Amino acid sequence: MASNTVAHSAQVQLYIQYNARLPPRSPAFQWPSGPVLLVAQLGLDAILFGQNSTPGSTIEYDRAFLKHLVKHIDEAIEECSEEQAASLDTTKEDLTVDDALLERYMTLVSLPETASSVHGTHIPCALHVIHFFPTDDALTLHPVLGRCESVVLRQEGAAISQGTTGLTTWEASLRLAAHLTAQSPQIWHPQARILELGSGTGFLGLVCSRLFRFCSDPRTDFSLVLTDVEGQVLNRLQETVNLNNAQNVEIEPLNWVEVSAGEPEALEQIRRIRPTCILAADVVYDPGLVPCLTDTLLVTLQNGTTRDGQRPYALVASTIRNPDTYEQFLQSLRERHMRWTIVEAAQPTWPNLDTLRLFPSVHNPETEGQVCILHIEQS
């Protein structure tokens, strides 16, 4: 049967996906193998829901998660041989779902449905999504994951139904953030000036703030500016930055339409920021905004800062859901004399978990679109 090390890795695997609030019914959710799960279930309740647990889940999510967890444990018991049971110092007949997990699940099952479920609207409650990533520069040692950082987001269940795309974390943002965690020593320096366009939930920018916490020294020229349009999205962005206690982040409204129109105030704002690097993720979705986006990219590159011979550049990550819209974006770059190369994105995984990517998701690239990262410069 599984060793303690393998069992702990399985507990970490479940802890990361649970806190990322991945739907447990998804085929992309990674469950430990049956023999490993039988060992890993012991103490799992305390890890997920005890003193080391993280706040912000919902009854609905916990109930769904535990339903599938108990189902997988039951299947593991059913498939367990007598020899495997003996290696656990028990018999197959005595194998059971861990008492603490089963009791918690039965308690949640007995609770009433929320109002939205009762009335048939099926809009999930807001919950907090927590993404962890390992880094040697972390200030604290996590009791379950070791030395790592985290970003906490309030995920709105109704955001998409209301058309507020900026309140949802999209796949390209996750993949660009993972790429940056692997590339940060080569890409960034204490004099970096980072501008993010269309920051939305703030996830990508907050990962940067964690990666470059050392750059908050006021004696450096470092800056990290997150931007989006004024209104609900920008307000939520500020709330998220406050929630994460990010000290080295500035938030500013920036309207691409105003930049494209040459509004003096918008142009002066970009001149003041003078970025060395522009970041943008999942911003190519509205054909009507593509010209304004590419105009904004051009203006930021024209007014950027060159550091150590490196011209200002942009990293734009897109989930290609509509190839025609993406081709319009590329054509718009050509018309503005910007050149690009496709970045071979790093895909870091968790230590001892070779199949679990940093910032996991259940995104299916075959049906929901491939992610492409472009490195863009002015010709």
From TrEMBL:
<dbReference type="GO" id="GO:0005737">
    <property type="term" value="C:cytoplasm"/>
</dbReference>
<dbReference type="Pfam" id="PF10294">
    <property type="entry name" value="Methyltransf_16"/>
</dbReference>
<protein>
    <recommendedName>
        <fullName>FAM86 N-terminal domain-containing protein</fullName>
    </recommendedName>
</protein>
<dbReference type="InterPro" id="IPR019410">
    <property type="entry name" value="Methyltransf_16"/>
</dbReference>
<dbReference type="GO" id="GO:0008757">
    <property type="term" value="F:S-adenosylmethionine-dependent methyltransferase activity"/>
</dbReference>
<dbReference type="InterPro" id="IPR029063">
    <property type="entry name" value="SAM-dependent_MTases_sf"/>
</dbReference>
